[in-house]
Amino acid sequence: MSKTALIVDDSPTMRQMVAFTLTNAGFTVVEAEHGKDAVNKVAAAGKMDIVVTDLNMPEMDGITLIKELQKLSAFKFTPILMLTTESALEKKQAGKEAGATGWLVKPFNPDTLLKTIAKVLPA
Amino acid sequence: MSDEFAQFQEAFFEEAAEHLAIVEEGLLALEQQPKDLELLAKIFRSAHSIKGASGMFGFNAVTQFTHKMETLLDLLRNGEKAVSPPIADLLLKSTDCLKTLIEAVKSGVAVDDEVVQRLAAELASASGAQAPVVPQKQAVAAPTQSEHQARRYLIKWTPPEWLFQRGLDPLQVIKELNGLGELSSVTLDMSRVPDLAEIDPEKCYLSWELQLLTGKDLKTIEAAFEFVREDSKLVIEEREALSVKRETSESGHDTRFTNDDQRAEDGAPKPLGAILVESGVVSPAVLEQALSQQKRVGEILVEQKVVTPQQVEQALQKQKQQESATQTKKTDTASIRVDTAKIDKLINLVGELVITQSMLSDLGARFEIKQLPVLLERVAQLERNTREIQERVMGIRMLPIGTAFSRFPRLVRDLSTKAGKKIQLVLSGEETELDKTVIESIGDPLTHLVRNSADHGLEPPEERLDNNKSEVGTIRLNAFHEGGNICITVEDDGRGLNRDKIVAKAVKQGLIGENDKLSDDQIWPLIFRPGFSTAEKVTDVSGRGVGMDVVKRNIEALGGTVSIKTVTGKGTTFTLKLPLTLAIIEGMTVRVGKETYIVPLLSILESIQPKDGTIKTVVGKGELINVRGTYLPMIRMYDVFVLEPEYTNPMKAILLILETEGERVAVMVDEILGQQQVVIKSMEQNFRKVEGIAGATILGDGTVGFILDVRGLLEIARHGTPIAA
């Protein structure tokens, strides 16, 4: 069975690019526009193998989303990657405290994305 | 840039355009409520999104510039700086600049770097000294050590207890280390594992001691611990003492200070300026100041007498031209973004269509006449499917008109500053949906009308006060559906059209005679004549007599009309009436002799069979018919199109009462066949323009049917000039 990934980003372009990379790598991808959307979609989709989320989003930001996901038993051990830009790196700590596994700095290329995922997702 | 991502560029441009609109709209709204933090957050997010995505494509100029805007927006958002008019102005200008930058990468044309640099400097200084702190680099320039020299490292690692809770697996780290070279020994330390009763299964109590033989450097090894390093106890020792040679990077002669984080990431030396700022020797503001004093290439060359000032001037001119060429270059967005729900619905419908089709072919294979009712039922089902699919597909092309309105708040703001007038813009009906092509084409005509209202229509504040009006003039843009049309009104509460001036000008231009007696309704449309402007002085905004005729031409090209209502001293309203879509109309099929015509359903008021004595012939006006006390002009279709009809006696035929633009006409046909949707094919493109015919369509039996142009028929009725088909 292919692995599942939840991609959360308010920018459709970013979402498409991450989804494209992961789909090519054999993932089944669920996309969400923001934290709230993600929480709703997770309720429907159940468990995911990995979560890749932007931090700065409308409705519900990434940090809050990570906290929300931590409350769900299905996501307790799910790796969560934060997508941040350099300027938002200070949020990294807040994200880690909230329960994020790792981070990836934008801009990135497909290779680094997959490598970073390989770091946190047991093959 | 990653080539794999290149295919998403188009999506980026589309998204960026949306974000730019949000930023611009937001900034304008911000001038009204400068303390709206939610709005600021929204603007910030949009800028942030542009920055993030542009970086993915390597559009560095865009990324860097947006970063500067973002820095300032961040300060505003956090309340560290208040929104002042100069700041709002600067941000608006920067938005324009960003637009140009994005346009430039899209079309591959160079941008005037000077403007960009100047605005960037302004943004930086507005952000104040504390702003552009160069972010701490995560991965510092990797020193290029010789890689083939294998060294032995001893690694002691105690991961944090929460390791599992974050979804991390120590095995992953160890595997990655193994990938770097050879793990000659892995020792697991379980001494911290408590008694079974006390074990928290979610915690990690393990430690490792590893020996790694690798040619990679320390940084690469540390990178394997990327997400756990800060919280782990980690010691990496080199066991066999080998001279560690680190290449130091020499700071070059590049004096430009940039926020180009990419450089550092790539291992390229940081610019001198950046290093000075980082080490706190100078503040970014001071640096920007110093940089702004840098001489431009042209100045230096002139000083060195290599070129003459004239040559530089010429080159600059050329640059300007290129710049304006870029700006006027219209970039058509050929793609459209569609809600996935709409597409899902379409796929469902297509599925149904396939089912209906297979049921029909199944029926056809062994058809007996007694199954006719079943056949008819299935055909009806097919028709329902087709119609619904058609509606949905058309729906995809429908967009809210708000996208065309969104440019006006900014335009009006700029116009009011330029003209020294106080103008308030009121938008309504933004959610009204219409065809994408129509939306794209009405932007320019609407701009002309709004400019016109701001410049000619509205009076200067003093004049308004003198006339007991509010100092602030109002321009209203409204959109609404009316029948199968969409109406857009541009309304101002200004001085209204000046009849005397228009008449004088028209006489001067020879459009009308001096003694012609014309009604107001005949006078106003004169302003749509080419080269017609009554403005006393040509302003930057309007008054060159270009525009109003273009407005009319554009709207008519879309199958629409423009009308004017004006009251002297009270204001003027322009009403644009446009078809909802350009491709399909609801029509009534009628028969005249052996020919089938289609009458647009929306223009049909009723159909009647006239009684004896209701038809009269009036000299010079042709035939008139009395419909409940009102005489309407009557047209015999067979006369107009020179046909052989079934009936020449109106008492036996059927009269359709048609209306367009408030005028009515009775059209005589042999028979009404039914109602159907028809796809319009242009006559002009396939044949030539024919008076009284709006277009053609293919009928169910494969023959061509003509679609009546009701307006054209009215003209024919008025002038009584039937044209041979």
Which keywords apply here?
heterodimer, A: 123 residues, alpha/beta, Rossmann fold, five-stranded parallel beta sheet, 5 helices, B: 725 residues, alpha+beta, Four Helix Bundle (Hemerythrin (Met), subunit A), Alpha-Beta Plaits, six-stranded mixed beta sheet, five-stranded mixed beta sheet, 24 helices, 42% helix, flat
Total separate domains of chain B: 5
Q: What is the CATH superfamily label of the largest domain in chain B? A: Histidine kinase-like ATPase, C-terminal domain
Low-confidence stretches of chain A: none
CATH fold description of chain A = Rossmann fold
- Principal-axes shape call of chain A: globular
Task: Please tell me the total number of domains of chain A.
Answer: 1
The major sheet of chain B is characterized as: 6 strands, mixed
- Which CATH class of the largest domain in chain B applies here? Alpha Beta
Count of DSSP E strands of chain B? 22
The number of helical segments of chain A is: 5
CA-CA gap between termini of chain B: 61 Å
Most extensive chain contact?
A-B, 42 and 42 residues
Count of β-strands of chain A: 5
Low-confidence stretches of chain B: 129-147, 241-267, 325-333, 536-545
Helix content of chain A: 40-55%
CATH homolog superfamily of chain A: Response regulator
